[in-house]
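Hi R.,

Quick one: here's the AB-hydrolase YheT sequence you asked about.
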Amino acid sequence: MGSLFSLVALSFMGAFFSAASIGLPDKTPLIHFSPKPAVVTVRKSKNSNQVERQSLRTLVETKCKSLFTEFRPLWWLYKFSGHLQTMYCVFGDFSKNDHMWYDRKMLRLIDGGTLGLDFAPIDTSALNDDAPIVVVKHGLTGGSYEPYVRAILHRACAPVEAGGLGYRAVVVNFRGCAGVPITSPQLYSAGHTDDLRQALLYISKLYPKAPLLGLGFSLGANVMTRYLAEEGEKSRLQSACALACLTRPLEPWDLEQNNIGLLSSFLGKHVYSKGMGGNLLNLLKRHLHALQADPEHRVAKAIPLTLELKNPTLEKFDDTFTRVAGGSAPIFPFATAHDYYRYSSSHYVVKDIKVPFLAINAADDPVVRNVPMDGGGNGLVVMELTNSGGHLGWFQAGAGFVDRWTTKPVLEWLELVGEYLVPEMGNPAPLFVDDNGYIKESGRLQLGCKEIEGGGIINGNGGEAGTLQGL
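And here's the predicted structure, written out as tokens:
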């Protein structure tokens, strides 16, 4: 990792050279629509009761015009753009940008696990109960504090009169991330969707009139994609946007091939894969007590071998621990990491998504190596590929600061699906509260959640010691 720090100085040069991306070649993104785009129902104008049917392609072309604009990276991040953009995402100083504070709600799950849901804005006195809610899943070991999350939510949650969307947002932090405790012998993974499913029970019960708009980053994007496909017409999310979905899709979003791609280069193996593996190992060490509470549990038995790992790649960590602890039985444990990757990949399920879905990737993403552009033949899926941008980077020159190109297109998408789209999916299963206070839904009595003490106002502008941001 030492070679990385020699690049940090280059990142700080941005303070002196954020003027423009002058003289760079044409960077118009490639956008794929299905040959038969879906036709959806939309309002003729905001807050209108009059509706009409329009092609999703027409809507995107007219309401999300920034998707069709050039991405012109900062010139000092242009050469070897994918690596430098990613390095800046990891090592850049974003402490002065997009400040966010959250109201954390702690949820106890039926299996004894705990989720931390971070709601914004803090002051909701001016918001109606039916204001759209952006439901966020962050990357591999991040949380609501991640700069790529704040870049969008800071604007989405700002009042309309201040140039924002006037929406609510809630970040569903993975177990053990962003200061959320682990209280059961289970971690999380790319293929475990029940935690998101249970969080959505709580959000839907709290705000039954609000449209829920999914937004996923990296690993969180894969979880959200799989959730949508598994739920189909019963999805509680009425739309979703996936950024830098953590896969290497020779076919759409194939985790196994993504891992092979990562290990095929020096930087992929020794920087990105080991960086992600190290993040997960440090997360495990922070939660040893809870994960070892039952010495006979399969997860506790996997810990000694995991702790012996030295600077592991992501695959090595997954093969030793995630395949065992990344979800609940009977799906977990898997025999090998590759079995886990094959199960968790979303390349074969994207065709089953029943709500409008936008995916944005960068062609030079060093973590997500090759990106498909067929959308699984699904008319509700829009795929976009920029020439450069790295992994969750897309840095361009802003008005006196470094900004992300993706922020504006994503906000336009959220405005389209939050203000104009009229949901047409089937009704999700009814909710009820059982005798123990757990929110449940008919047909899935093994799942449920209830709010517990331990939440409150939190500062969402820091990070976690021992964890690299931006991954």
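The CA atoms of residues 196 and 219 lie 13 Å apart.

Cheers,
M.
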